[in-house]
Structure formats: C-alpha cells, structure tokens
Specification:
This protein folds into two domains: 396 residues, MFS general substrate transporter like domains (Growth Hormone, Chain: A); 59 residues. With 579 residues, it is mainly α. Helix 3 runs antiparallel to helix 17. It starts with 7 loop residues before the first strand and ends in a 31-residue tail after the last helix.
Amino acid sequence: MENSGEKTLATPISQSSVGPKQRWLGLLAVLAATLMNLLDSSVVGVAAPAIRQDLGGSYASLQWIAAGYTLALAVGLLTGARLGDMYGRKFMLMVGVVGFVVLSVACAVAWSPETLIVARVLQGLLGALMIPQTFGLIRDLFPPAEIGKAFAVFGPAIGLSTVLGPIVAGVLVDVDLFGTGWRMIFLINVPLGAFALLMGRRMLPKAPPSEAGGRLDVLGMVLAGVGTFMLVHPLVQGRELGWPVWSLVECAASLPVLAGFAVHQLRREAAGRVPLIRLGVFRRRSYASGVGFVMVFFGAIVGISMAVGLFLQLGLGYSPTRASLTMGAWALGAFVGSGFSGVVMGKLGRRILHIGLGVMAVGIAWMYLVFADAGVGVGTGDLLAPLGLFGLGMGMIFVPVFDIIMGEVEDHEVGSASGALESLQQLGASLGIAILGTVFFGVIGAQATHNFDENAAPKLRTELTAAGVPVSTQDAIVAGLRACVDARENATDPDRLPASCTSIPVTPASAAAVAKAGAETHTRSSVDAVKRTTLLALGLTAVAFALGFLLPKRARENQFTEPDTSPASAPEPREPSLA
C-alpha cells in the first residue's frame, strides 16, 4: 500500500479548459523543445570533421562528442521524468529549455575537445529535463478523442527532424555565418529555445504535479547512471586503447549494477516509496516488447547515419554541404514515409512496422551493393535512391511505434513510462554510435595494409617507373609508405604524423604518386568500413523485425475515445489480450 506521506496523486487536468488554438500552439512549443534535442542528437556526425580540424582530438573524441550527449540524456531521463511528476511537467520543461540553451552556447564557445565533450554531457542532462515531459504535456493539451491527431503531427515531426539534423549541420558549417563555422550548429538552439519558452509559458496548461511530494531516489539515480556509463564507456574507448582487460571487465560489470538498480526499484516500491521508474509498466506487453524494439531500431538508424556521414567526408572528401545534401534523400524519404504511415496506421496496425522495416532492409542492402560495386568511385547519384528508400521505411515506423508502445499506459504511469522509454531509446542510440563507430574505425585500420598491397602498391610502382625512379629507391618508398599507412590508419590521434611517415625517401618526381597512393588506400579502407557497418545495420534491422512480432497488433482500441464510466457500460473482467 502506498505511503500517503510519500506522494500525492494529482487530479488530471480538464482538456475542456484548453481551447483548440491553445492546444496546437502549445504543441508547437513542445515540438520546438523536441526539435532542439533531435537536432543535437544528429548534427555532430556531419560537423565532426570540421570540429576535429578546428579543435583537434582523436577519433574516440569524435565518438564521445556524439555519444556523450546521448549517454547523458539516457542517464538523466529517468530523473527528469520523476522531477516532472514531482514539480509539474510545464515547469520542468521550461527549466530544461533554459538550461539547454545555456549549454548550447557553452558548446559553441568550446576551445578544446575536452571542453566540448563536457558541455555536451551537461547539455544532455538538461535535455533529460525536457524530453520526458512531452508525452504527458500532449495528454494534458488534448482530450482522448483528439490525441491521435496530435501524434499524427508529432510523429512525422520527430522523423523529419531526426534526418534533417545532418542537412542543417552541413549547410551551417559551409555557409559559415559570421565566421562561426561548426559552432552555429549549437547556436541555432537560441532562437528555437526562445520560441519554446515564449510559446510554452503562454500556451501550455499549468497542470498540477501528478505525484507531488516525496523524495527523489538518489541511490537509483546513481545506480542507473553508473551502470549505463560502465556499459557504453568501454565500447567507445576500447578500440583506441587496444581493448585492455579492464575495458572488458567494466562492460561485464555493468550488468550486475543495472540488475541492482532494478532490484532497488522493486524494493523501494514495495516499501511504499516512489521509485525512479515504475517497473510495473514492463508487465504490459506493448511496453516491454516496445522498449527492446526501440533500442535496436534507434541504434541501427543513428549508428548507420553517423557511419555514412563520416564515410562521405573522411573517406570521399565531401564538403559538409555535399555530404548533407547527399543524405537529404534520406530526409525526403522519411517525410514521405511518416505521412503515409499516419494515414494507414489505423488500418494496418503493427503490420506497418514490418512493412517499414522491410523497406528499410531493402534500402540498406541496396546501399551495400552500391558500395561493393562502385567502390572508391561511389558518388552522390549512386546513393540517392537507396538512401531515399531507407528513409521511406524508417519514416513509416516513427508515427505508429510510440502509439502502440504507450497505448496501454495509464495516466499516472505516463511520466515513468515516457522517461524510461526515452532513456532506453537514447541508450540504444548511444550503443549504436559506440558499436558501429568502433567497427567503422576498426575496419579502416585493419584493412589499411591489405588495400595498400593489393591496389595502391602496384599502381605506385608503375607511376614511379614512369617517373624514372630507380628500382632500389622504389622498394624503399613502397616499404616506407606501407609502414606509414598502417601506422596512420591505426593511430589514436589522426592529427599526429607517425614517425614512419617522415622517413619515406620521397623525391620531387615521386611526391605526387606517393600522395595519391596514400589517399587511395584510405578511401578503399573507408569503403570497406562503411560496407561492414552497413551489414551490421542490416542485421540490427532484422533483429528489430523479429522483435516487432512481440508488439500488440494495434494500439489499445479505446485509446482515443472518451471513456464511458456508467455502470451499464462496464466490461466484463477478462484476461489481458496478447494479440
């Protein structure tokens, strides 16, 4: 039995007191806050080369600039959801927006990779105050009969924003407004945050806290944070350090820590105290299976997005704008897919998820075939169709998946359920970045000498012979460049020139051929890397396809209708449906 001194359940807000105009303007405020989070989750992939050129740093630093944000967001979302229950969703959204904008400015003025990573982590924690409030605020704004219309707008906006991030980043970096370069990708949050604050303060209803009073579960916060960090940290840092034993031990030790968090939550709830997350929501089939689906799905799309963005710039040498416009087909496909699913999801239910995943899989397989066939000659035109098809399938999933997962969640569980869902979604994204990023950079290093021996070295000898370089000198140049390529592609600091690269006996007649051979080797290794990560993303899509069968065939049928509370309408008690 719940301790009455620990919490007070609030009376649900009456949507009749909120006019139609206020509802949609309030939804715009929620969307603006969500947009800031989605943009900052995806912009770094395209801007990463420009950031490294300006600030320096290792490849692991690039991964941490992206993963540090999503990891902090994942860790903080459970706490953010609980704070929304305790102090009100509108209040915590406003606090989160203010802090997010301030930390965005801090990211923009960062002077080193370390300061940027710290600012990104803090930015993620402030984002964790905003995001868990969104589902609850939409429920506060819209009556059950109209909430479906709100999600029909909210879902496509999420999908479009996710893939527009790289395009926005590329354009902002190349346009170089006021000489800001990559820093503008963070400064753009200032006008977005101002709009969210102004519109949210005026239009969002000030609903009372759903669980006022009580104390924050500090021990639960620590266990969740430490366990999540121990899981992701070695995945990001392990390759750079050569996979020391401690990295494997840390990853394995994260599991008992996370298990301890779950046990602590159960004991806290059994003792009548409010936990950080109500694990009872996981007893709902739609929610428990949906969490696994979301983690795998977002891990795949966020991870492959980063890998393709890095390949286009680091591998093919595209400018940020060209790379982002190449990936624009992805955004267009996602927009079309979101609109399509919003129309047919009521009829198709869960089947739309499998249709979307099937289309995604075809797009990913097509990308792999393009990389395998075109190799170093791959261009923008080769990628537009497969990227567009991949985006189309991805967009079909954004709208219905949250509808199905949250369909059976009760009002008093919204804060806990949305916080856990968003947290695990971001954890999936962090793992996707860590795993696919590790594979991408690892394959580049592993394939360097092979690609040099098989392709670059024979061409280099031919060009050196044509330039009149003696055979003995050719042997020294080829051996020296081979050692240089191996050292450079496996270096933890890409800006530091290995000693082997300074001892190559390059002559004026051979300089151009040597540079060309080194560049070709890097491009071929990058193609191998993106092929491997594409196959991994295809495998994750197959896993998501299988997990989709565990979801209910459709959202709760009475989700969007006003309940009839008359005794005559009360249904007979029955077992929960597993369909």
